[in-house]
């Protein structure tokens, strides 16, 4: 019964969000696009990094690949096939990167993923300047902001369902074991490399599609726009705030932080980066396991205190 109610609630929420473009103005739709984009990015990031505890900063690399694929092939490939092409390229890159780097762990993996994002940006810049003779590309596609919103909503819903399914499947259990101790996971017969590669690939394809879907918003795309490292850090902060190991954690982290960052960028444009860094430090020190885990721990502590005080109250 609870599963039926949860499914019905999920359908109602998605249907309600789908009606937003009919009642919101252009700014509201734009705000919705940005929010759905980061909700999807944070949820996709948590698919792999949440259970395995591999902190990836390669989000912007795949996001930029998706955006630039649309920019390069927008005049030669139909739009639906364009998204498929972007996803295929993102998958190919994820498989190559995963096969060569997922044996790394800890700070080495973090450094590599950050370097990967910068490497991809520099390669795209070099190709544009030395081969095509330009640094950016225009995108003229008949895609309205409302169309982008609905595409992102569909992708966000699919990502959420994938996360829910993985969390209740054997692969989800395998990921949790890998995150706790890879040596124990290997002795349990888990194919560590295959499981990590599969989840890294799924996460990367979703992130690539987010970049591809959002690309028509900009009209003009260049490497500094598509491969902005802030995207990786914002995604990481949002996932950590809500709790990357929880199903609804990235959602609870992405929505309030996105609204906060929008307000900060509009009111404190010169101090935005500093405030962003301070928020990141605060989350790491105060809420290392996310707001949901923090709330649960305090709730349990409060309940224990209440139970201990019951005899004293009775007396």
Task: Describe the protein's architecture and organization.
It holds the Pfam family BPD_transp_2. Its main location: membrane. It is found in: Cell membrane. GO terms for molecular function: branched-chain amino acid transmembrane transporter activity. Keywords: Cell membrane, Membrane, Transmembrane, Transmembrane helix. The longest helix is centred in the N-terminal third of the chain and has 27 residues, at 26-52. The chain is built from 15 helices and two strands. The relative contact order is 0.15. The chain has one domain. The protein has helices at residues 2-18, 20-23, 26-52, 59-73, 79-101, 107-132, 145-167, 170-180, 182-187, 192-214, 223-226, 230-242, 249-267, 272-286, 291-314, and strands at residues 137-138, 220-221. The mean pLDDT is 83. The protein is an all-alpha fold. A two-stranded antiparallel sheet has the order 1-2. The N and C termini lie far apart (42 Å).
Brief account:
The chain has 315 residues and is mainly α.
Structural class: mainly alpha
- What share of the residues lie within helices? over 70%
In the predicted model, the low-confidence regions spanning at least 5 consecutive residues are none
Q: Indicate the radius of gyration in whole angstroms.
A: 21 Å
GO molecular function, one term: branched-chain amino acid transmembrane transporter activity
Transmembrane segments: 28-48, 55-73, 79-99, 106-127, 147-166, 197-213, 225-244, 251-268, 274-295
Keywords: Cell membrane, Membrane, Transmembrane, Transmembrane helix
Membrane topology: Multi-pass membrane protein
């Amino acid at each position: 019964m609870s599963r039926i109610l949860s499914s019905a609630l999920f359908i109602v929420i998605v249907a309600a969000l789908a009606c937003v473009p009919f009642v919101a103005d252009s700014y509201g739709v734009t705000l919705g696009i940005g929010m759905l984009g980061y909700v999807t990015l944070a949820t996709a990031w948590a698919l792999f990094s949440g259970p395995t505890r591999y902190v990836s900063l390669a989000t912007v690399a795949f996001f930029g690949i998706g955006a630039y694929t649309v920019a390069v092939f927008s005049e030669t490939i139909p739009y639906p096939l364009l998204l498929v092409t972007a996803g295929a390229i993102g998958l190919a890159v994820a498989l190559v990167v995963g096969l060569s780097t997922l044996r790394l762990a800890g700070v080495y993996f973090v450094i590599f993923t950050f370097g990967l994002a910068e490497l991809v940006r520099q390669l795209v810049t070099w190709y544009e300047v030395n081969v095509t003779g330009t640094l950016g590309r225009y995108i003229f596609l008949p895609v309205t902001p409302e169309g982008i919103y609905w595409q992102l909503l569909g992708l966000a819903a699919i990502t959420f369902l994938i996360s829910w399914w993985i969390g209740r499947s054997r692969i989800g259990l395998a990921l949790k074991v890998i995150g706790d101790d890879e040596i124990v996971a290997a002795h349990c017969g888990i194919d560590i490399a295959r499981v990590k590669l599969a989840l890294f690939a799924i996460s990367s394809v979703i992130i690539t599609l987010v970049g591809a879907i959002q690309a028509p918003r900009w009209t003009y795309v260049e490497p500094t726009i598509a491969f902005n490292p802030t995207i990786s850090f914002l995604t990481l902060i949002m996932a950590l705030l809500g709790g990357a190991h929880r199903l609804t954690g990235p959602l609870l982290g992405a929505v309030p932080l996105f609204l906060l960052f929008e307000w900060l960028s509009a009111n404190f444009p010169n101090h935005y980066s500093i405030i962003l860094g301070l928020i990141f430090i605060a989350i790491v020190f105060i809420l290392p396991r996310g707001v949901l885990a923090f709330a649960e721990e305090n709730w349990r502590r409060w309940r224990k205190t209440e139970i201990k005080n019951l005899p004293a109250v009775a007396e």
